[in-house]
Specification:
Blueprint (H helix, E strand, L loop, with lengths): L3 E14 L2 E7 L1 H6 L5 E6 L9 E9 L4 E7 L3 H7 L6 E8 L10 E6 L4 H10 L5 E6 L7 H5 L5 E6 L6 E2 L2 H11 L4 E5 L2 H13 L3 E5 L15 E3 L5 E3 L6 E3 H4 L2
Parallel strand pairs: 7-8, 7-11, 8-9, 9-10, 11-12
Antiparallel strand pairs: 1-2, 1-6, 2-5, 3-4, 3-6, 4-5, 12-15, 13-14
Bound molecules: FE2/S2 (inorganic) cluster (FES).
């Protein structure tokens, strides 16, 4: 399926946490199409350095004013250059790409670790007004700027930090284990580091609860053509994270 490529004007670009930026740009066509869990492939057009596009998950969409918002961590040359783009600057955006989350739920539980919380924002917004519970994990309280973002979207927020500086000390899967024993959910959505996803999938499967995971992988083309992003599936075949995912049912990719 042909993807839309647009030149987008940056409207806002602010630092919201340690090495984490929120970027809002105007892209009315993409704002009409984007689903929670999908991503865009971003190219900095003003750079003199030739760079591949960078895949970044969609954190929010406003179809009314035609904007998309991304929340990303500055981790390398591509995102460092992106971080320098000022409001008024132009970006080359391909998208929306990939498959998003299923929204068939009445009692959703969201689990996000680190920057993996970014796609959960648009997911939570899309699930409202259903009662949403979220478990958010990070290294320390400085990384928990997410609390403010999810406050108006979720009925119940649970926080874990590695150092115990905010919420419960430990990992999201520790909190998840307790929550699945104490409450009833009909689906678990997860995005974050691979070990976290495997732990979430294992716990949800043990409780017979549907689970969707959003995988991260290195990508080049972003549209299923180069095979640089494949992962092993439980049927013995391989899946392209960019085109078959990034959202998968847990049993498809974790045994
Ligand atoms: Fe090329 Fe996925 S990035 S096939």
């Amino acid at each position: 399926m042909p993807k839309t490529v647009v030149k987008a004007s940056v409207l806002e670009h602010t630092l919201i946490g340690p090495q984490v930026r929120r970027l809002t740009f105007a892209a009315p066509i993409l704002a009409q199409q984007a689903l929670p869990g999908q991503f865009v492939h971003v190219k900095v057009t003003e750079s003199i350095v030739p760079l591949l596009r960078r895949p970044i998950s969609i954190a929010d969409v406003n179809p009314d004013n035609g904007t998309l918002t991304l929340i990303y961590r500055i981790v390398g040359q591509g995102t460092s250059l992106l971080a320098e783009v000022k409001p008024g600057g132009q970006l080359d955006i391909m998208g929306p790409l990939g498959n998003g989350f299923s929204l068939e739920t009445e009692r959703p539980l969201l689990v996000g670790g680190g920057i993996g919380l970014a796609p959960m924002v648009y997911l939570a917004k899309s699930l409202c007004p259903r009662p949403i519970t979220i478990i958010m994990g990070g290294r320390n309280k400085e990384e928990m700027y997410w609390q403010e973002i999810f406050q108006s979207l979720c009925r119940s927020i649970h926080i874990t930090t590695d150092d115990g500086s905010l919420g419960r000390q430990g990992f999201t899967v520790d909190a998840l284990s307790d929550m699945l024993s104490a409450d009833t959910f009909d689906i678990v959505y997860a995005c974050g580091p691979q070990p976290m996803l495997e732990g979430v999938a294992r716990l949800a499967t043990a409780k017979n609860i549907r689970c969707q995971v959003s995988l991260e992988d290195h990508m080049a083309c972003g549209v299923g053509a180069c095979l640089s992003c494949t992962c092993a599936a439980t049927d013995g075949k391989r899946r392209k994270v960019c085109a078959d995912g990034p959202v998968f049912w847990a049993e498809e990719v974790f045994s």
